[in-house]
Amino acid sequence: MIEAAEVKARLRDAVARFLGPPGDILELRRLTAGATKATWSFTAQIGDTQRALVLQISTAASRADGLVAGSDAAQTEQIQLPMLGGKDDAAVMLAAAKAGVPAPPVRAVLTAESGLGEGYITDFIAGETIARRILREARFAGLRGNFAAQCGEILARIHAMDKPALPFLLPLDGARQIARYREVYDSCDCPVPALEVGLRWAEDHLPAAARNTVVHGDFRMGNLICGEQRIHAVLDWELACTSDPMQDLGWLCVKTWRFGGSEPVGGIGRREDLFAAYERATGIAVDPAHVYFWEGWGCVRWAIICLVKGLAHRSHGAQRTVEALAIGRRMEEPLLDFLELLKKDLLQNS
Amino acid sequence: MPANLALAPDLLSVIREFLDTDIVQDPGLSDDKRFNARVAGNLLAMAERELRLGPAAKAAEADRLTALVGAEGSLEEKNRRLCRAIRDRAVAGDDPQVLDHLHRTIVDALRINNPKWIGGLS
């Protein structure tokens, strides 16, 4: 992994080139250090002003063109999940901003030649992403009151993004997605009967999609920078693809993303408010049963992601982290939620 | 091995307490390292619970699987047979005995991995 001193030197060159000289880096703080991406916040001297910025580096190349085996394919047949690399990720964020979605403004797109890896620099957006605080602290009461409606409005804008302008987005509608995740699960060679039931249920209950649009793919509490009244920015676009737009509404309601909150939309909002705002913005009616399917499938999909992360330590050196192991141990959470949904019969009618 | 030596569960809990106090509360620790130390403490708590609850949970899972797919083979082989039966539609997707087995197996795993998760869907 690239270290702070190295990042600082190379970042200075990138800032000087794309944002203006001298580019001196005054503060550099690592926010996250994942196996496939690292996020740093920093302040840079540009002319006689100081600007707060964020650097995002993806260590993996874009995998949007399909599932390729991991870098040490000889050791493992495990298929990777589709994920956008830094350049495509940045292109989606630029397109999102153009469509009126609150996305961090991209100031520079970095290629491997930057010495930092593929990535981008955006403005630093003030606000909170930590769900625990957003759900509980008094200062976010205003946001909590209209969070679901804001999500509906933002999702409507994401789903209106210019699809032909983003040709690298993987077509991953419901049927393709289920098939792809089944492949990923099979490649793990780890028999989980509950996942077999989930995959089979999804194959049998997939509703016909009225539309196929750009979808964010990971629109949820935790990936939204929140102010006290408004959602300031939508982050983490690397799972963007084209699919049934109801996917994003269902995923937002998956219990994992409620972080212990009692309401379905991110733990703090009502489904009715989400749907009503989405309908107002798009003029298209939302069928709750259709969204329930995507919530149920979201549970199954998240369980498969947990499984992949939980097994990664066997083969991928970079993923031998406590965080990956902990995510692996979360697999049963969405599986229980899925079984509860099945039991409640909410999904049978979709 | 002398009986007065600390046993595996003791080792795990003492290491966890060390992480949760000395390490996590070290003001000089960077945010990402503190986060990872906290996660490591959680993993140790899971290992402690697994030592305590794992054997009985596995035995119960194996017994239920025997009733569903026969007694031959290891726990993993039985799970493979059940997976195959679900995929090949040799059992109904809503077979109550299968769903009951899955529910019990998942709840037992959550008692180890995250007991707080058990409880109805909000």
What does this structure look like?
With 350 residues, chain A is of the alpha+beta class. Chain A has a domain at 1-66 and 84-124: 2-Layer Sandwich (Phosphorylase Kinase, domain 1), CATH 3.30.200. Chain A is 41% helix and 16% strand. Chain A has helices at 4-18, 86-98, 131-136, 141-158, 174-188, 193-205, 246-253, 271-282, 288-311, 322-328, 332-343; strands spanning 22-33, 37-46, 49-58, 106-110, 118-123, 213-215, 224-226, 231-234, 241-243. In chain A, the strands form three sheets. A five-stranded antiparallel beta sheet of chain A has the order 1-2-3-5-4. Chain A has a two-stranded antiparallel ribbon with strand order 6-9. Residues 61-77 of chain A have low confidence and may be disordered. Chain B is an all-alpha fold and 122 residues long. The longest helix of chain B has 39 residues, at 31-69. In chain B, 16% of the residues are buried. The interface between A and B is large, with 38 and 37 residues.
Shape of chain B: elongated
Number of strands of chain A: 9
Mean pLDDT of chain B: 92
Question: How much is the radius of gyration of chain A in Å?
Answer: 20 Å
Largest interchain contact: A-B, 38 and 37 residues
Largest sheet of chain A: 5 strands, antiparallel
Helix/strand class of chain B: mainly alpha
Strand order of the largest sheet of chain A: 1-2-3-5-4
- The general outline of chain A is globular
CATH architecture group name of the domain at 1-66 and 84-124 in chain A: 2-Layer Sandwich
CATH class of the domain at 1-66 and 84-124 in chain A: Alpha Beta
Unreliable spans of chain A are 61-77
Structural class of chain A: alpha+beta
Specify the helix fraction band of chain A. 40-55%
As a percent range, the share of strand residues of chain B is under 5%
- The total count of helices of chain B amounts to 4
Q: Quote the CATH topology of the domain at 1-66 and 84-124 in chain A.
A: Phosphorylase Kinase, domain 1
Helix content of chain B: over 70%
- Measure the end-to-end span of chain A: 46 Å
